[in-house]
């Protein structure tokens, strides 16, 4: 009696070993885990964007927006309750850049930031209030190892699928590419290369490519995070 039970158990184990996984296992199990990473960078960026729009223009013509890093913990009223930006395997940096729209490739801050005031005039101390300023909010961070292709460094398909299925098509949201070496969209990026810089964002929005300002490319922290060999970081960029 017990011998037949053992034989039956053994045969059942063999059958289980020969049974393939469900065809939709990625959609059911793997991609939902990738969605956690995508949702995290999206939530942080949109929270900071909400704050920026609310404080962009004061009634007296000033602004509470200034260039530099923005930390979600410094603006708790704008992020969902319990949001932990530095927990788990992924963390992201949000920065405001106030750049001169007249500078080639948006490579510098407005010259008004450095002007000495003429007699009877107030100097422009905040680059974001300069008349020629274009304000960028950029959130970026490393792709967690499990969602990065070990050979190319690019995000795995599951991560990109999670970006599309969770949030749909969002302009300026994707990963950093080198325009020259990656050629991410078979040359179509030239149509959207508005700044002519060497790096941009490959994304799934209505526009497949966004130029990254040269000033951001020169930022030391951005360089260390996103521009090393085989290091295609996630990025979300908005113009305010």
SSE inventory with pairings:
Blueprint: H1 2-17, H2 25-54, E1 68-70, E2 93-100, E3 133-141, H3 157-167, E4 173-178, H4 179-182, H5 189-192, E5 199-203, E6 209-211, H6 214-217, H7 220-226, E7 234-239
Antiparallel strand pairs: 1-2, 2-3, 3-7, 4-5, 4-7, 5-6
Helix pairs in contact: 2-3
Low-confidence stretches: 14-29
* Distance between the amino and carboxyl termini: 76 Å
**Strand order within the widest beta sheet:** 1-2-3-7-4-5-6
Radius of gyration: 23 Å
Q: What share of the residues lie within helices?
A: 25-40%
pLDDT averaged over residues: 81
Tally of alpha and pi helices: 7
> What share of the residues does DSSP label as strand, in percent?
15-25%
Shape, per Cα inertia axes: globular
Q: What can be said about the biggest beta sheet? A: 7 strands, antiparallel
Helix/strand order, N-terminal first: HHEEEHEHHEEHHE
Content-based structural category: alpha+beta
Number of strand segments: 7
What features would you describe in this structure?
The protein is α+β, with helices and mostly antiparallel strands. The chain contains seven helices and seven strands. Strands 1-2-3-7-4-5-6 form a seven-stranded antiparallel beta sheet, sandwiched between helices. The chain is globular. The N and C termini lie far apart (76 Å). The model is unreliable at 14-29 (pLDDT under 50).
């Amino acid at each position: 009696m017990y011998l037949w039970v053992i034989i039956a158990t053994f045969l059942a184990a063999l059958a289980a070993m020969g049974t393939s996984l469900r065809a939709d296992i990625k959609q059911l199990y793997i991609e939902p885990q990738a969605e956690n990473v995508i949702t995290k960078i999206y939530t942080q960026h949109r929270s900071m964007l909400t704050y920026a729009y609310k404080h962009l223009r004061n009634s007296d013509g000033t602004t509470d927006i200034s260039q530099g890093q923005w930390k979600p913990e410094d603006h708790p009223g704008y992020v969902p309750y319990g949001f932990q930006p530095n927990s788990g395997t992924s963390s992201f940096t949000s920065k405001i850049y106030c750049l001169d729209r007249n500078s080639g490739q948006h490579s510098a801050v407005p010259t008004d930031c450095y002007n000495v005031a003429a007699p009877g005039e107030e100097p422009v101390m905040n680059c974001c209030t300069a008349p020629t300023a274009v304000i960028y909010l950029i959130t970026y961070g490393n792709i967690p190892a499990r969602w990065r292709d070990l050979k190319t460094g690019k995000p795995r398909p599951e991560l990109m699928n999670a970006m599309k299925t969770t949030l749909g098509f969002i302009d300026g949201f994707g990963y950093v590419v080198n325009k020259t070496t990656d050629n991410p969209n078979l040359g179509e990026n030239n149509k959207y290369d508005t700044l002519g810089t060497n790096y941009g964002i490959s994304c799934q929005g209505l526009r497949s490519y966004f130029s990254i300002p040269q000033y951001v490319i020169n930022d030391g922290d951005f360089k260390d995070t996103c521009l090393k060999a085989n290091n295609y970081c996630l990025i979300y960029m908005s113009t305010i």
